[in-house]
Amino acid sequence: MRYLCRAQLLSLLLLPLLKARLSVPAHPIPQSFLPLMISTWNYTDANREAWTVLRQGPRRTRQAVIQGCLHCQNSNSCGRLLGGHSAPDSSGGITLEAALIDGANMDYGAVAGMAGIRNAIGVAHDVLRYTNHSLLVGEAAARFAEAMGHKKEVHSLSTTLDVLLPWLLGKCQPNFWRNVRPLANDSCGTFSPLPQEQQQREMRQEYPIEPGHHDQVGFLALDTEGHLHAASLSSGARFRIPGRVGDAAVPGAGIYADNQVGGALATGDGDVLMRFLPALLAVEALRAGQSPASAAEAVMRRLLRHHTEFNGGLVVVSRLGVYSAACAGLDEFQFVVSGESSGRSMRRVEGIKCLDRHEVVTGGPRGNFYVVSKKIWAAGGEDVLVQRVEKITLNEGVDSREFEEEYLEDKDAEIDVDEGEKAEEVRSLLDESPGDLLLHQLGLAPPFPFRFPFIYF
Fold it and tell me: Which stretch is the leader sequence?
């Protein structure tokens, strides 16, 4: 009877979900292929930088993942959002977050919501080395960074404004508000809560991930002695509500590693990732005896059961170097793998096709979610701004898709045409007094003080 109870418990832990082609086949890596460096998305230059450090010898895993993050935060080779200061929050603030975990003892250091300090991964490393804490946030994190010798940097607002102004002129779409008034899908605020009786059934909002426009990257290093480190770096979701902390800084959400079993990197919609801690779940699935392929698939299905709108990917690596991945909501999820065989470095970009998530969601929640609207100019004739919204309804297992087209008024189109002129006006004012600026005086923002932090990097 005792044996049966244990078997039943184990079966519950390892119960596979419905079969689907969510993951790439597991790649068994011979010991001679180690060390191993894996990074999310197709940023080969950053992976190469990390790999150069890792192959210098054993016990270089920590320095390797840090070097990968440093390359991304100091260059534009990991996309505009990470290196180009193009992911402001809704108030125009630029902040970074980063995290580092040691698989030997689960030591963890992270920062979030930190403005004015470029070297976010370096500050996260200092949190791990010099404090008993795991996560520091906001202005206090910046003060800690300065105390550790990191310098604040001033950055021009030009790049930020290039992203922020079109968003403001487009009625702040998309944003992260719900159940507020005025309606969040047609306004910039200021918002206040809707009375409970007026709140509608929750609509899931999808946030597509554009190729090359990723706001988070993760690195995982495994050496020949079995040491694991993982690190993550993020500029945060564009137009997020100020004060929001993302998955890159939360233990188990974006990264996790344990020398005894393996590690994982997760990326995608951070607010969903933080609710499920997929990197931690994947590592615990390895501990329970699952393969990297089945672990990645099971975790991805768990997310999709509750969040049909999820976009993102997950890479899982065993302590022996076997790796696999799963993804949802993307045309393709790519990650870079570097290793060594017979003294020669080998690097490849893995790309997996994601299953249509509507085929996966058979027992999950029902309801509606909307693809973020895209604004395009009609070709030929008079310029008319067209807003196309794809509405997908899941009811009783039957999918239906509706397309709605809304032709905006001419005055909205005229505002868009004048955008460049307004932007020049803003920049000229910034050149004269690069401190606080109230954009609403120019008619470019909602009727509340719009404040740019003075310190940018």
Answer: 1-20
